[in-house]
Amino acid sequence: MTATYEDDVAEWALEQVALLRTGQWALLDIEHIAEEIEDMNISHRHQLAHRIAILMAHLLKWKYQPDRRGRSWKNTIRHQRDKIDRLLKRMPSLRRLLEDPEWDQDVWDDAVDLAGSEANLSGLPEARIWDFGQVLSADYLPS
Asked: How many CB atoms are located within 10 Å of the residue 102 CB?
């Protein structure tokens, strides 16, 4: 094996996979493998937060700018719900995040910032105004 983690993480990863598959345990770079697995989990958490923030930003725009509602917003809402559903089916343990008040507030703050900057909205609620059942429901649109 020739690649180092520091020089080429992609090549290093392929070599680590080959070592794992051939049972060459002594040659594995355990510390960096653990770091990559941890980073992967963080990445999935960020992906869920980002998708929910986009979804809620569009729900905010839908609620507070009814005269601008259109197919594009509706498509974004549907697309984000589909992607979130797939993510939660592949990684059901991520559902725990939906019950974390700090995570919830961070995601809501991101949604409010996004809706504010994209649609020039201000004075939006400081706390989430829909439960996650509504947010993730395929047929829910706020009035």
From this structure: 8
